[in-house]
Structures are given as structure tokens and as C-alpha cells.
Design a protein that fits this description.
The chain is α+β, with helices and mostly antiparallel strands and 390 residues long. Helices cover 52% and strands 16% of the residues.
């Protein structure tokens, strides 16, 4: 290692030799940086999974514009929208098709746990509004009180989910009615429910008798090929009489939902603070190690300073130590962080995973934080007079 660092820096690796002089302290410093890395990895992993889970239901549908109530901050929240605005929107020459979707929560009581399912009611006669994955499964929704289930529903054994097929359906009671599951699709549990279920709008209304077919949760629109959904959305805001409605492109609705979850909801704010705290912990740990190292070798540094070595020479040594701690702390941090995310995914069925982007961000952040700590640690040395150091 010394030869490699000597080749890289073009001089004796003083920083490496000072760090390894006390192996116990060196190991403790690496453990501290690794701990901060693990903390950030877990928080980033949860934030990333929250983003994936937030956008997942949007992947079920194929739309260009979404009309929602003024308080609809997400796909699964907010009031209803009068269906009459769908007909008014279709007066626009570039709107080709529209439909309403219903959203509600249903419970599947099971012997060990009641599964909470975010349920969507759609018009089965309009397959173009469904994703290519869901479109082939639409035929079964034409049957009364039928539905298709998210195969990744949290708490549902995979073998039981795999057994749900048109030849071997599964049934359960909801609001005194029997819902029959004929097929499954790939969804994934989120933070608001254990999984998803899709049914026809008629089945949905039979399960939620208080709901009206004239008031879906959202209205989805498709526009002519080549038409800009943003431009059409602006036009629809002038066309539709109810000015309180949120009329946005489908992509903008997804972006708004994600921003709301990350910056307005308590979970997103807490996880964001977790990342900041992890960074601060790393900076403090590395600063303490480097500051102590500078104090322990102050007389040696003073000797060099009296001999005429410039300030950048000392900065080079401290930055060398900071970079060594960053790299050596990152490696165990990414290994432990990956293991924790894998374990948490198995326990919660949330889309938790280590990604290359996360690893790159944390590595760069660790290098920056360690360099910052090193720069702070050299302030005392920069202001010192060699005559005062002996």
C-alpha cells in the first residue's frame, strides 16, 4: 500500500504512515466513516424506495393528461372530480379519449393478517388506458365482482399468489360481497398499503356503494399523436369551467406527487434529515480523527514548517489522510449497507436496493466530507508560529 501511495503522490506517503502508526485508532476511524456511510445508505435506500413506490401506480395506466381535485396531492389522495368535466375536456380538438378512474382501499382478512389493498376501478372497455402489461389481463375484469391482484402483495405467500389463475381463482369477502381474483400482475407493496388490486368500475362501485359513477377520483385523457400534453393542459384550464381543478400532464402529475411525498409528507422529511445527519456524523468523526492526528504531530509539522515547507505540503498530508479514510470507510460501508437493504426488503417487501447511483453519490459525498474535515483540521496548523509549537 505504501508503494502504491508513494507512486500516486510522488512522495513519501506520510499521511498513510501516520494513520497506520496506531492501528487501533485507524480501525476505529474506518469504522466511524463506515457507520456514517451505512446510515446514509439506509436513508437513501428508503427514500429511493419511497420514490419507486410513489410512482408505481402511475405505471399501471397509459395517459397524457390527468385531471384531479384541488386537494389531490397524490394518486391515492384527494377529493372526487365530476364526470361532466370529462365531457367538457373532450370538446378540445386534440383530446381523443378520456376515462375516469376510482381509487379506494379494501381489506382482505386472512388468518394471520388483514391485507390492505389499494384498489383501482377502471372502465374495462377502454384497454388503451392500461399499461401493456395489464392490457392482456383485462378480459377477466368483464366478469361481475372480479379483480386482478398484485402478486407482490406484502403478507401474501408467493406460492399462493402464483396459484391465482383463471382456472384456479381465489375469493374473499369485502363489504358483504365476494370478490373473485382471476389473475395477478407485478406491482409491489408501498408505504400506504400492502399491494394493489384492479377491478372494473362497476365492481368498484358495488364494493363502495357510497361512491357515485358521476364522481371518479381522477380523469385520464389521451391526446392526438404529436400533440403536446402541456399545451393541451393549458388550453383545458381555460376550457373547463371549474377553475379549482388540477389539470396537468401525466408526467407533471407524477413529478408533483413525488415532490409532495419527499418534501411535504413527514416520512420524506424524516428520511431527508436522516441523510443530513449521516453526513454530519461522518464529518464530525473524520474531523476528530484528523484534528487529533494534527495535534499529535504538531511538533513534527512545526519542524517542517521551520524548514520552509509551504502550507500546501501540510494540506497534502491531511487530505491524503482524509482520502484514505474516505475510501477505506466506504468499502465496508457499501457492503454492510447493501446487506441491510436486502434484509429490509425481505422483511417489508418494499423496493429497497443498492443502486450504482446511490453508491456513486455516497462515495463522492464521503470524499467531499472527508476533504472538508481535513481542511478544517489544518486551520490550527496554518495559524501557528513554528516558534510557539516547541
Amino acid at each position: 500500500m505504501s508503494r502504491l501511495l508513494q507512486w500516486l503522490f510522488g512522495r513519501l506517503p506520510i499521511g498513510w504512515l501516520q494513520l497506520t502508526h496506531s492501528r487501533t485508532r485507524f480501525a476505529a476511524a474506518i469504522a466511524g466513516v463506515a457507520f456514517a456511510n451505512v446510515l446514509v445508505f439506509v436513508q437513501l435506500g428508503i427514500m429511493n424506495s419511497m420514490a419507486i413506490a410513489t410512482l408505481k401506480p402511475y405505471d399501471f395506466f397509459n395517459a397524457d393528461i390527468m385531471i384531479s381535485a384541488s386537494d389531490a396531492n397524490s394518486m391515492t389522495e384527494g377529493g372526487n372530480v365530476a364526470r361532466q368535466w370529462l365531457f367538457q375536456a373532450q370538446a378540445d380538438p386534440e383530446v381523443t379519449l378520456g376515462t375516469g378512474i376510482f381509487v379506494g382501499n379494501t381489506n382482505w382478512p386472512r388468518p394471520t393478517k388483514t391485507l390492505g389493498l389499494t384498489s383501482f376501478g377502471i372502465d374495462p372497455t377502454l384497454p388503451d388506458f392500461l399499461s401493456p402489461v395489464l392490457k392482456p389481463k383485462l378480459a377477466t375484469l368483464q366478469l361481475n365482482d372480479s379483480a386482478i391482484l398484485d402478486m407482490a402483495t406484502r403478507g401474501l405467500p408467493p406460492e399462493e399468489a402464483a396459484a391465482i389463475r383463471p382456472q384456479t381463482p381465489a375469493s374473499f369477502e369485502v363489504s358483504g360481497k365476494t370478490v373473485t381474483l382471476y389473475d395477478t400482475f407485478q406491482g409491489g407493496g408501498g408505504f400506504g398499503g400492502d399491494g394493489y388490486m384492479i377491478m372494473s368500475d362497476q365492481t368498484f362501485l358495488s364494493l363502495f356503494p357510497a361512491r357515485s359513477s358521476a364522481a371518479p377520483d381522477h380523469i385520464l385523457l389521451q391526446v392526438k399523436p404529436g400533440a403536446d400534453p402541456e399545451v393541451v393542459s393549458v388550453r383545458l384550464r381555460d376550457l373547463i369551467s371549474d377553475k379549482s381543478l388540477r389539470i396537468r400532464s401525466y408526467d407533471q402529475a407524477k413529478a408533483d406527487d413525488l415532490s409532495y411525498q419527499q418534501t411535504k409528507r413527514p416520512t420524506g422529511i424524516i428520511f431527508g434529515f436522516g441523510v443530513i445527519i449521516g453526513v454530519l456524523v461522518g464529518i464530525v468523526i473524520v474531523y476528530q480523527v484528523l484534528s487529533t492526528d494534527v495535534a499529535d504531530h504538531l511538533s513534527e509539522y512545526a519542524t517542517f514548517k521551520a524548514m520552509g515547507y509551504p502550507q500546501k505540503f501540510f494540506l497534502g498530508i491531511v487530505f491524503e489522510e482524509a482520502l484514505i479514510l474516505a475510501v477505506f470507510g466506504f468499502v465496508p460501508g457499501v457492503i454492510v449497507g447493501t446487506g441491510l437493504l436486502v434484509g429490509m426488503k425481505k422483511a417489508t417487501n418494499l423496493p429497497l436496493a443498492m443502486t450504482w447511483d446511490m453508491a456513486a453519490i455516497v462515495l463522492i459525498g464521503t470524499l467531499v466530507a472527508c476533504s472538508l474535515s481535513g481542511a478544517i483540521a489544518t486551520r490550527r496548523l496554518a495559524a501557528a508560529d513554528p516558534a510557539d509549537l516547541f
